Amino acid sequence: MRTEKIIFADQLRSLAFLSVVIVHWIGVYSIHKDTVSRLTFSPVSESDFGYIYRAITLPLPEFNYGPFGVSIFFLISGFVVSFSLKNRDSKKFLTARLMRIYPTYIICLIVMLAVLYSTSYFYWNVIPSLGFGNILSNAFLINNLIGVPSIDAVNWTLAIEVKFYIICAIFRHFIITRGLTSAFLFSVLSSLLSFLAREVRFPSWLVELSHEFSFISYMFIGLCFYLALSGKASKFSAAATALICFTSFSYFIYANHPIKLFFVLFCNYSYSILLFLACYIIKNKFKKIGVISYLSKISYPFYALHSVIGYAILRILEDIGINFYISLALTFTFVLMTSSIVCLTIERRTMTMRQG
C-alpha cells in the first residue's frame, strides 16, 4: 500500500484536534462557563465570547466542532489499526498501543496538574480538591468505570481507544482474516448490550462499558475503509458493513441521549464519515505539507494537554484584561511548545521502544 494513500488520514488528524481545540477554547470557554470554573477552580467568567464561536460555526444542521473532531479521531484509529495489527502478534500489538497511549498521557496529566495547581493556588488562592484516587484512576483511564469524573474532560476518548485496542488484540486473528464479519458481529453485540443496559439493572461499570462499546462500533467503520482500500473486501460489502456499524452507534445515541443531543451527535458523526469518504475517494491527490504534518505529529500530546491548561491560561489572561484573540494566540503557542517538547522527549522515546 503506497504511503500516498494514507496521507489523507494523517492530515485529517490535524483537522480533528484543531476542531476539538476550537470547541473547547472558544465554544465551551465562552458558553459553558461553569464547566471551565469547575475544571480550573477559578471564578465563573462574566465575559461573553459566544458570538465568536457562533460566527465560525459551519452552516450545517446541528454542526458542532467537538463531536465532529472526536469522530474523525475515532475513524482514523479504526482505519490505521490494521497496519500495526497485521505486523505484530497480539501481545506485541497491545504492548505497542498501550505504550503509545499511557506514557504520553501520564506525562501530559502531570504537566496539566502542575499548571492547574500553580494557577489556582498562586493566582486564585484556591487549592484544587483532587484526591489521589481520582488522579490515579484518571491516569489509568478507568475513572468512568468506577464512577470518578474526568479531571480534564478529554480522557474519555482515550479510555475508549484502550478498550478498542484490547478487543483488537484478543480477536486479532479473526479481525485480520474476517474483518467485515468482526465489525458486523461486534456491532450486533454492542446494540444488544446497549439494549440490555437500558432494560436490565446492570452494574454502573457495565453500563459505562456498554457506552464505550457503542463508540467502538463507530471505530470499526474506519476498519471497513481500510479493508476496501487494501482490496480485502469489496467496496459494496465494506459500505454495507459500515452502515450496520453506524446504525448500531445511532441506536445507542438515540436510546441514551435527549433528542436534541441525539441529532447533534448523529449529524456530526455523519459529517465525519462523509468527509472521510470524500478524502478516501481523492486520496491520491493528497501531498505532504510540512505544517500539517507537524501538527499531526504533535496532535496527541496537544490533545491531552490543551483542555484544562487552555482554560486556566485563558481565564487568567481574561482576568488581567488581555484581548481574547491575543489570549488565544498566547495559549496556543504555549500548548504548542509544550506538546512539541513532550513529542520530542516522551513520545519519540516510547516509539523507539515500541519498534524495538
TrEMBL record:
<dbReference type="InterPro" id="IPR050879">
    <property type="entry name" value="Acyltransferase_3"/>
</dbReference>
<feature type="transmembrane region" description="Helical">
    <location>
        <begin position="179"/>
        <end position="197"/>
    </location>
</feature>
<keyword id="KW-1133">Transmembrane helix</keyword>
<keyword id="KW-0812">Transmembrane</keyword>
<dbReference type="InterPro" id="IPR002656">
    <property type="entry name" value="Acyl_transf_3_dom"/>
</dbReference>
<feature type="transmembrane region" description="Helical">
    <location>
        <begin position="261"/>
        <end position="282"/>
    </location>
</feature>
<dbReference type="Pfam" id="PF01757">
    <property type="entry name" value="Acyl_transf_3"/>
</dbReference>
<feature type="transmembrane region" description="Helical">
    <location>
        <begin position="209"/>
        <end position="229"/>
    </location>
</feature>
<feature type="transmembrane region" description="Helical">
    <location>
        <begin position="236"/>
        <end position="255"/>
    </location>
</feature>
<feature type="transmembrane region" description="Helical">
    <location>
        <begin position="320"/>
        <end position="346"/>
    </location>
</feature>
<keyword id="KW-0472">Membrane</keyword>
<feature type="transmembrane region" description="Helical">
    <location>
        <begin position="294"/>
        <end position="314"/>
    </location>
</feature>
<feature type="transmembrane region" description="Helical">
    <location>
        <begin position="12"/>
        <end position="32"/>
    </location>
</feature>
<keyword id="KW-0808">Transferase</keyword>
<protein>
    <submittedName>
        <fullName>Peptidoglycan/LPS O-acetylase OafA/YrhL, contains acyltransferase and SGNH-hydrolase domains</fullName>
    </submittedName>
</protein>
<dbReference type="GO" id="GO:0000271">
    <property type="term" value="P:polysaccharide biosynthetic process"/>
</dbReference>
<feature type="domain" description="Acyltransferase 3">
    <location>
        <begin position="8"/>
        <end position="345"/>
    </location>
</feature>
<dbReference type="GO" id="GO:0016787">
    <property type="term" value="F:hydrolase activity"/>
</dbReference>
<dbReference type="GO" id="GO:0016747">
    <property type="term" value="F:acyltransferase activity, transferring groups other than amino-acyl groups"/>
</dbReference>
<feature type="transmembrane region" description="Helical">
    <location>
        <begin position="65"/>
        <end position="85"/>
    </location>
</feature>
<feature type="transmembrane region" description="Helical">
    <location>
        <begin position="105"/>
        <end position="124"/>
    </location>
</feature>
<dbReference type="GO" id="GO:0016020">
    <property type="term" value="C:membrane"/>
</dbReference>
<keyword id="KW-0012">Acyltransferase</keyword>
<keyword id="KW-0378">Hydrolase</keyword>
